Amino acid sequence: MTKKPKRAKFEPPLCIFCGKPGMSEEHLFTDWLRADFPRTSHDSHVYATIDVDRQRSTVRHRHGHSGSRKSKRVCKKCNNIWISQIDNGLRTILPPIYKGAEQIIDQNKQAALAVWLTKISMVGDSLEPSKSKVPQHQRTWILAARTPPLGFQIWLGSLDDREFGELGIYQNRGG
Is residue 93 part of a domain? Predict the structure, then answer.
């Protein structure tokens, strides 16, 4: 008598930050931004990846607002505690920036923006796990220190152009 082959056991995904199960849906861009970036049923966005090593890019047009993108690779505890604290810490800092108000971005605001943008880049990197470039030790770092990992660079600039007025993230997936 032959035995039936055993099915591979389903392994639930683990949180990209703490490595524990219990996933939630983490918005790539915090949900409170929808007040200033409303969504409609006609929205679409472009999702692009750039592979510097292979010198190629992939561009995909997707239905839905870029602000509606979610990752299912963040646990409820991380999402509802420290990520929520980071997102909510930007409520008074971020709107004047994207509304074009003239202001001074002091070191405290720079630090808050840097950790928020780092978190976004790491969550964005998790949208396609097979193409992820952010090493686990960097995700563990932001969880523990609430600062960007050493060597992580955040660049922020302004763009006065209505054509590109939507939320967006540009991420280099090169090595």
Answer: yes
Q: Rounded to whole angstroms, how far apart are CA atoms 68 and 73? A: 15
Contact status, residue 48 vs residue 59, Cβ threshold 8 Å: yes
| Residue 91 located in a structural domain | yes
- 42-97 tens-digit pLDDT: 887 777 777 777 777 788 777 777 778 889 999 999 999 999 999 999 999 999 98
Q: Report how far residue 33's alpha carbon sits from residue 51's, in angstroms, rounded to the nearest whole number.
A: 29
Put simply, whether the predicted model's pTM sits higher than 0.85 gets the answer no
Of 71, 69, 72, 78, whose CA–CA distance to 17 is shortest?
A: 78
Is residue 169 situated within a structural domain? no
CA 68 to chain centre: 12
C-alpha–C-alpha distance, residues 147 and 2, integer Å:
56
Are 108 and 92 within 8 A, CB to CB?
A: no
Residue 8 maps to a domain: no
156: containing domain: 23-164
Q: How many domains does the chain have?
A: 1
pLDDT at 130 over 90: no
